[in-house]
Design goal:
Blueprint lengths: L21 H11 L5 E2 L14 H9 L14 H13 L10 E4 L1 H13 L5 E6 L4 H8 L3 E6 L10 H7 L4 E7 L11 H14 L2 E5 L16 H4 L4 E6 L12 E6 L2 H17 L5 H4 L2 H6 L5 H4 L4 H14 L4 E2 L8 E2 L2 E2 L9 H12 L1 E2 L1 E2 L11 E4 L4 H19 L1 H5 L1
Parallel strand pairs: 1-12, 3-4, 3-5, 5-6, 6-7
Antiparallel strand pairs: 2-8, 7-8, 9-11, 10-14, 13-14
Helix pairs in contact: 1-14, 4-5, 4-9, 13-15, 14-15
Bound molecules: pyridoxal-5'-phosphate (PLP).
Amino acid sequence: MSTTPVATSSRLNHVRYEIRGSLAHRALELEAEGRSIYKLNIGNPGLFGFRVPQHLRDAVAANLDRSEAYCHQQGLSHAREIIAAQQRSRGVTDSSVERIFIGNGVSELIDISLRALLNPGDEVLLPSPDYPLWSAATLLNGGTPVYYSCSAENAHFPDPEEIEKLITPRTRALVVINPNNPTGAVYSRELLSQLVRIAERHRLVLLADEIYDTITYDDAEFVPLAPLAGAVPCLSFSGLSKLHRACGYRIGWLSLSGARARTGDLHHALDLLAALRLCANVAGQWAIEPALTGPDTSAALTASGGRLHEARRAVLDSVASSCFLNVVAPQGALYAFPAIDRALLPGFDDEQFALQLLEQESVLIVPGSSFNLGTRQHFRITLLPQPAELRDVFSRIERQLARGAEPARHVA
Ligand SMILES: Cc1ncc(COP(=O)(O)O)c(C=O)c1O
């Protein structure tokens, strides 16, 4: 009997998703041995006691009998009409039901969109750090990621001049993640308008990942990209996973906007790829109407006294009192992206630290380099735990960093 391993696709050679990678596997092993682990590697609200709002759950339950057949490849038409109406109310004046595609989460639609767009060697401008699915889906669809910097030194904002310098004849698309995962940056109207002008000048497609939508803190305001883009082709992504805490429903959508004369072929390609996977989960689509037309259930979480607001406060206080850490305060989304002070910990390596933190302090975080970042001094932590848990987590992080600062004593 042959023992030769089954070969896998070389397309996967550079594909990584460390949010659920080797550290997360190790955490499961430790749990199986009876250890209790703070698993802060993933923005999955349902794991932290958040519930899907009752009116969304009721809508799904009430419509299960109508969820047994495949639906249209783009999604239930009444749900798409609701999404198109939201787009129109936000200023995408000609949004309509046939320009909306519902998918099994934004994740599936990111893959479909890049598959629809890219030829081998086409370049996609991605933020660094990025949400790593964007890099993975670019590579899997034959594209080449080209990173523009969103460094802490620039408050995690992109520099439009740098972006423009990275453009080549092969550049096809500009990905904008706003509010940003992992950094929490929220982009201003002025910055977004500059990005639109770049796309216009260089005939790029805008890919706006807006899954965190209005999850913003303090005075930050979420500005959707599509209304600013006008005639520039733009795919805007959002869904139920974050704002409506319904990750498990696997419902996301994309809205196609821009001059119809330029987007006809793209529309056709998206439709074909959507048809190949038949349709998105039908039961979950019944939650779209109550989510977009019912009461706002997230504003109270991010307002002063709300759970996410207080969790963010706990992170900011902990970092402020740390000897080793600094952070650009997240203005949106569900994460903070602290960095260590290299002067105090010159040999710091984010992956090694994350493993030691897991082994010694039972805390699972994601190293910053997992987000396609060239430097190795950041980590990402989700804001979803209770504030008191986050304070405990940061005292463990501080202890681990102190061990790193005094290696001689630690070895002894
Ligand atoms: C920026 C970003 N885009 C897309 C996704 C995927 O969302 P979905 O659950 O809709 O697939 C996530 C999930 O964390 C995300 O952070």
